[in-house]
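Quick question, first post here. What does this chain look like in 3D?
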Amino acid sequence: MNQLFRPDVGVHLLLIADNQILLGLRANTGFADGQWSVPGGHLEDAESLPAGASREAYEELGITICPADLAFAHMSHHFDPDSQARIGVFFVATRWIGEPVNAEPERCAEIAWFCFSDLPENTVDYVRTAIGRYRNHTAFGLHGW
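> Answer (accepted):
Ran it through. Tokens below.
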């Protein structure tokens, strides 16, 4: 009999302004350090997906996003290089309160805005793929399987 499997769920934010997306350079996290990624993190116990994305926006960027202002963008079932199967749920936000800042400098070396057509080469692979699928209006994708 197989044991019930519950993959880790991550919530990710696609913050978009002036046809650009906000990315952060990961540092000291133990996963994809030195690579660019969208803001996000793990879903916490008894937390809805939009609430988790909103919380991550505040923790990582110091901005407030009403969960109702988040739109579903993409879901990725990805198999990471660390041999972990994960579910990544991506939300897009075009409205928020405050100016994004690097609110977690111990985990993020810097934040910057990038044109969709000019993402850094060292963008986390499944995140780059999810951004592309969002731009192509693809709601679900597999990565790394």
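The first strand starts at residue 8 and ends at 17.
The helical segments are 49-61, 125-135.
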